[in-house]
Write a structure and sequence with these properties.
The structure is a single chain. It is built from nine helices and eleven strands. It is of the alpha/beta class. A six-stranded mixed β-sheet has the order 2-1-3-10-4-11, sandwiched between helices. The protein has a five-stranded mixed β-sheet with strand order 7-6-8-5-9, sandwiched between helices. Helix 1 runs antiparallel to helix 8, helix 2 runs parallel beside helix 3 and helix 4 crosses helix 9. The longest helix is centred in the first third of the chain and has 15 residues.
Length: 270
């Protein structure tokens, strides 16, 4: 009997369990059984992959950077969502604000998400640092530490940062482009009252990761099944809509430069 491939995922929302029930059933139907282990935080998941407790990890971008550091690059990025590639984050200000460049944030307060959120904290702060401003010295960081350990996979802290700016408790806030698009569409943000001040360089988001020594044949079998999932299949579409993608794509390492720069510049890992 073929042993299941063990996949780790972080349970950042109740829908994660439903998503993986659908994926697990599909893999079983296609002759590639998997088991799923849920973690409450990415740090534990990185530890589990590094020590062989799981075979594949569905990693946040910060978890990927941590894994690369802790394995000295002896890991592979094997798959990701189409929506994980070439994302950006925005710094947003009120339309009538006198802030027109990142340099104008000197002496101001920037509201951000959780401490471990690449999209709503680490990468946007790095964007302000590029203007020569030092966090906590030249500008104040107002952080909303919602669900620390989940790496900003939810919108809790990001939304609270927006609300703080809307309440005039902050001069600017940070958010992922997908959230700006969603919130200006659903009425959360009136695009006539707020504008994008600056945008980060493109970066990649979540990625399936394996250790360097993972069996290539099993990896290929797993990827063949994953890539065969289709948005045209109604059951797959349900999962893909919940997970926010239209197509699974090959993984890549090239999109994590902005986050690597951010964690170094902010000494995130000490």
């Amino acid at each position: 009997m073929q042993m299941p491939i063990v996949v780790g995922a972080v349970l950042y929302d109740p829908k994660v369990s439903l998503i993986w029930d659908i994926i697990r059933d599909f893999f079983a139907q296609n002759g590639c059984p998997i088991d799923v282990v849920f973690y409450t935080n990415y740090e534990r998941q990185v530890h589990a992959l590094k020590h062989g407790h799981i075979d594949i990890a569905w990693n946040s971008p910060l978890a990927w950077v941590q894994l690369e550091r802790e394995t000295q690059g002896k890991c592979r990025a094997i798959a990701m969502r189409d929506t994980d590639q070439d994302r950006v984050s925005h710094l947003v200000v009120p339309s009538g604000s006198e802030i027109h460049t990142t340099e104008d944030l000197r002496g101001k307060t920037v509201a951000v998400g959780a401490a471990d959120s690449p999209q709503a904290t680490l990468i946007p702060i790095a964007l302000v640092q590029r203007a020569g401003l030092v966090p906590g010295v030249d500008f104040q960081v107002q952080r909303f530490d919602v669900l620390v350990g989940k790496h900003g996979d939810h919108v809790g802290g990001e939304l609270q940062a927006l609300q703080s700016m809307m309440s005039n408790n902050a001069d600017a806030c940070a958010m992922l482009d997908l959230n700006w698009n969603q919130w200006t569409t659903d009425g959360t943000i009136n695009p006539g009252e707020y504008r994008i001040l600056a945008t980060t360089d493109p970066f990649d988001h979540c990625v399936f990761a394996v250790r360097e020594d993972f069996d290539p044949q099993r990896e290929r079998q797993w990827l063949d099944v994953l890539f065969s999932m289709s948005y045209d299949n109604p059951q797959h579409r349900e999962m893909m809509d919940l997970e926010g993608l239209r197509q699974w794509m090959p993984g890549r390492k090239s999109g994590f430069g902005p986050l690597s720069e951010a964690v170094e510049g902010q000494a995130y890992f000490g």
